[in-house]
Design a protein that fits this description.
It is a single chain. By secondary structure, the chain is of the alpha/beta class. The protein has a single domain, classed as Survival protein SurE-like phosphatase/nucleotidase (Stationary-phase Survival Protein Sure Homolog, Chain: A). The chain contains 6 helices and 11 strands. The strands form 2 sheets. The chain has a 9-stranded mixed sheet with strand order 3-4-2-1-5-6-7-11-8, sandwiched between helices. It is globular and about 65 Å long. The N and C termini lie far apart (58 Å).
Length: 256
């Protein structure tokens, strides 16, 4: 199996390293990832700057890992599929992200955006994230769980272009309770900004790291993740509101 691995935390992120180690049990892994962290980059792409590309090797300086791209996560997948890979991948994995991408976070996430980009090109793509609670990430253990979930998704023989979002709960809270397939929570998160003034009297703001969902809603990924379950959410990138579409199509429109 040929696996394309990417992320938004950067090619040297420990989450990607841990996940790559596990994915090597499933096949060959080629990494094409941002050279630097691109968290919350969403589905942005680079238009006004060149996409510089560098080969990356293991610590032994001999084993080829893949390419570091001076660009966004979506850029990495585009370049991988259109320019860098000699053969198309059988599956695209994005992660493992440092921090969950449950609920509306999928709209901000560069991790999920990279997976969506893969699905655009009719490849099965899976985004993988590990929940954060301000403690040390156990990427190694989480990668083992992620690999098992990925194996089971692959075993279902998903149709080309299938897209999945996988979140793994904080492992320090206790044993994994299981896997739940659930829709994403669409409740807004509580957000705060730290207002400050610089020495020259200019006001500036830091985004608070306390990004919490006050309404986890039963039967959603946010609730199950908090309860200690791995969550799997099938996604699609068609944002059309089909119910509203039918309503508007039946309306008579007038322009002068």
């Amino acid at each position: 199996m040929r696996i394309l691995l990417t992320n938004d935390d950067g090619i040297y992120a420990p989450g990607l390293r841990a996940l790559r180690h596990e994915l090597l049990k499933l096949g060959t892994v080629t990494v094409v990832a941002p050279a630097t962290e691109q968290s919350a980059a969403g589905h942005s792409v680079t238009l006004l700057n060149p996409l510089l590309v560098s080969e990356v090797f293991e610590d032994d300086a001999v084993t080829f890992i893949g390419w570091a791209i001076e660009g966004r996560p979506a850029d990495c997948v585009k370049l991988a599929l259109l320019e860098l890979l000699a053969e198309p991948p059988d599956i695209i994995i994005s992660g493992m992200n440092a921090g969950s991408n449950a609920g509306i976070n999928v709209l901000y996430s560069g991790t999920v955006a990279a997976a969506i980009e893969g699905a655009f090109y009719h490849h099965t793509a899976i985004a993988v994230s590990l929940e954060y609670d301000k403690k040390i990430y156990d990427f190694q253990a989480a990668a083992g769980y992620a690999r098992q979930v990925i194996e089971q998704i692959i075993a279902q023989k998903p149709v080309a272009g299938s897209l999945y979002n996988v979140n793994i709960p904080v492992l320090e809270r206790g044993p994994i309770k299981g896997v739940k397939v659930l829709p994403q929570n669409v409740s807004p998160y509580t957000e705060k900004f730290d207002r400050r003034v610089n020495p020259r009297g200019r006001t500036y703001f830091w985004t608070s790291p306390d990004f919490l969902c006050p309404d986890p809603r039963p039967g959603t990924d946010v609730e199950a993740l908090a309860e200690g379950y791995i969550t799997v959410t099938p996604l699609k990138f068609d944002l059309t509101d089909h119910a509203k579409l039918a309503e508007l199509q039946s309306q008579k429109w007038n322009v002068e």
